[in-house]
Automatic annotation (TrEMBL):
UniProt organism field: Singulisphaera acidiphila (strain ATCC BAA-1392 / DSM 18658 / VKM B-2454 / MOB10)
Family (UniProt): Belongs to the HypD family.
UniProt-recorded Gene Ontology molecular function terms: 4 iron, 4 sulfur cluster binding; carbon monoxide binding; iron ion binding
Pfam families: HypD
This protein's name: Hydrogenase expression/formation protein HypD
Keyword Metal-binding listed: yes
GO BP annotations, alphabetical order: protein maturation
Keyword set, alphabetical order: Iron, Metal-binding
InterPro entries: Hyd_form_HypD (IPR002780), HypD_1 (IPR042243), HypD_2_sf (IPR042244)
Amino acid sequence: MKYLDEYRDSVGAEKLAAAIARTVTRPWTIMEVCGGQTHTIVKYGIDRILPPEVELVHGPGCPVCVTSLEMIDRAHAIASRPDVIFCSFGDMLRVPGSRGDLLQLKSQGADVRIVYSPLDAVSLAAANPSRQVVFFAIGFETTAPPNAMAVWLARKRRLTNFSVLVSHVLVPPAMTAILQSPGNRVRAFLGPGHVCTVVGCGEYEPIAERFKVPIVVTGFEPLDLLEGVLRVVRQLEEGRAEVENQYARAVRPAGNPASKALIDDVFAVCDRKWRGIGLIPLSGYKLRPEYHDHDAEARFAVSNIETQESAICISGEILKGLKKPHDCPAFGLTCTPQNPLGATMVSSEGACAAYYAYGRHLEKTNSRDAMVPVEDLLPLGAGKEVVR
């Protein structure tokens, strides 16, 4: 496919892998922030063509994975009401709460609907004035503009039956929390390309300067990631800690000014609890007071719902880069995409789901293989799905 195949070229990948091997002289641990990047890394075996000195660990870059358990339970409490049409993106329907998921709730008669845009939920509210329509507004900065637009539009149209359950999370505070966490091994980041299309790169410069970690904003194709790793390794080896933009074809340094202005109009920064990680100060969005009438959490009085995380699931340690899916004794056995114990398995962008989809649950060890020839892995090799 034009403009895509060039970023999946095995010859180009081989050259980048060789350049990384020539550059690295000591062990480095690099975290890719975004779940989409994790998916590509596992699908194409990017981590297995890198020299043994370079280890990739998987960050908290999946908004489905990090939506707190209590927020899922609050969603269930709202969706179970007979007067509510509860709208969500499809990837949230199977995320387990304390008592099942939204899909099970739907099977029991709740009016839970998959929408492809928050504006679809606004249209539902206009078409159903006697029902309360609630949209589950989750995501990183990437999805904040359309979610903000839905609230702004509902207010403009005076749709008093439309509200949002806001669970937005922000990437830079999570990166800071990871760097400050006990046992942290992360020495550099592959930054989230899609997030930066909205907010730009400026918010990452204080992190690079404070913690002396390179941050390379990176795309999502194999060559994007390999070039990002090469740039990071060069910085590490040279003792530099700067923000670089590998994904310049999509990311502008200042981001998208119109989207940022809309976000600032509708949302304010707040503390937010992350699933498996805990409370991270100033790491989320909430509605500003002037949009309070569209706050589902307040409208349905569910903010007092509190829950406890499962003691079995180690998704929090995976999201912080401390462990990998193979380190969990339940991985691929009692925890599968059909029966997920944690959100890192249920989300298509979760690290556990990616490992499972591409057959790594069948492997007996978590030890890294020796370097594998690129031609054995790209473009299909390691990405070949296991037939079950």
